Automatic annotation (TrEMBL):
Assembly notes: Monomer.
Organism whose genome encodes this protein: Actinacidiphila oryziradicis
Residues covered by the Histidine-specific methyltransferase SAM-dependent domain: 21-318
InterPro entries registered for this protein in UniProt: EgtD (IPR035094), EgtD_Actinobacteria (IPR032888), EgtD_Methyltrsf_superfamily (IPR051128), MeTrfase_dom (IPR019257), MeTrfase_EgtD-like (IPR017804), SAM-dependent_MTases_sf (IPR029063)
Protein name: Histidine N-alpha-methyltransferase
Chain residues that bind S-adenosyl-L-methionine: G88, K94, D112, D140, F141
Assigned keywords, A-Z: Methyltransferase, S-adenosyl-L-methionine, Transferase
Entry EC no(s): 2.1.1.44
């Protein structure tokens, strides 16, 4: 049988470090201060996120798993996919449901910025799915992808609601770039959280145990370690709020007092006023008609919209 696992780095080894420096330099000198959410996910941040997915308040992971349990077979039938491309695959846990439904022979292309997440998940998947060929790609899916030549039809899966972390213009560019990877007969499976009452949404991002607060503050520890900064996470409060106009959750870190932070690797000093807030994440929530319009704008037709029984989360299946 052919080699079951290959890994391709499309990012130079130092790309991540350079991107972090650029994002921190830009974001902490911007008014208001902001950072992109991708920097939450070092090893500790990824563990905290796994813990979040098990919190009583954080429903998206369970709701999406319920939808995949009910509809993986339907997705396999509707797409007939022979290649599954998973963007931001992380631990690939929900992927198993899709791999089993699609059956062998199948090419699986997990795409993630974390090489350790890719290699760790692939070994276990290959052991459990005979006939699976894994081509892991270390890449940033927001910046253009080159895919190996594997059999069609292709199915691109972007699960978990992570598309909600992109600003509307970034979303449009991202969907257009996915469309450019696909041909007629291929498909896109997109997970999105759904607009709902404010109390439920805010609780999901401000849990009683404080796990989300620790996850949010972890970005400061990442900057301390990687850039030699002297942030003290205890100087900040976790803030989660619902923006009803934009229909997104914002996570912020609010300075508890006036303070100055040194970031030696950037030769930068950053002042915070007491109460000043740093935006660390947006997590947009969606409605079926909005998704349909954004997909259409990128050249996709929405053909299936599935929700969990409580209507909290949605999976969209769209075709070029
Ligand atoms: C992994 C991006 C889907 O936005 O809900 C969880 C990240 N942030 N709690 C989300 C997250 C705070 C999560 N995504």
């Amino acid at each position: 049988s052919p080699t079951a696992f290959t890994l391709t780095r499309t990012l130079p080894a130092d790309a991540t470090a350079a991107a972090l420096r650029a994002d921190v330099a830009d974001g902490l000198t911007h008014d208001p201060k902001r950072l992109p959410p991708k920097w939450f996910y070092d090893a500790h941040g990824s563990e905290l996120f796994e813990e979040i997915t098990r919190l009583p308040e954080y429903y998206p992971t369970r709701a999406e798993r319920e939808i995949l349990n009910s509809h993986a077979t339907g997705i396999a039938r509707a797409t007939g996919a022979r290649t599954l491309i998973e963007l931001g695959s992380g631990s690939s846990e929900k992927t198993r449901l899709l791999l089993s439904a699609l059956g062998a022979p199948l090419s699986y292309l997990p795409v993630d910025v974390s090489e350790s997440a890719l290699t760790g998940a692939a070994e276990a998947l290959i052991a459990d799915h005979p006939g699976l060929t894994v081509h892991a790609l270390v890449a940033d899916f927001q910046h253009g992808l080159a895919l190996p030549d594997t059999p069609g039809p292709r199915l691109v899966a972007f699960l978990g609601g992570t598309i909600g972390n992109l600003l509307p213009a970034e979303r449009a560019a991202f969907l257009a770039s996915v469309r450019s990877l696909l041909s007629p007969g291929d498909a896109l499976l997109l997970g999105t959280d759904v607009v709902k009452d404010e109390a439920t949404l805010v609780a999901a991002y401000d849990d009683a145990q404080g796990v989300t607060a620790a996850f949010n503050k972890n970005v400061l520890s990442v900057i301390d370690r990687e850039l030699g900064a002297d942030f003290d996470p205890a100087d900040f409060d976790h803030v989660a709020l619902w923006d009803p106009e934009q229909e997104w959750i914002e996570m912020r870190l609010r300075a508890r007092r006036e303070l100055t932070v040194k970031i030696p690797a950037l030769d930068l000093t950053v002042d915070f006023a007491e109460g000043e807030e740093l935006r660390t994440e947006i997590s947009a929530k969606f409605r079926q008609e909005g998704i349909r319009a954004e997909l259409a704008e990128a050249g996709f037709e929405l053909r299936h919209w599935w929700t969990d029984s409580a209507g909290r989360f949605a999976l969209s299946l769209a075709f070029p």
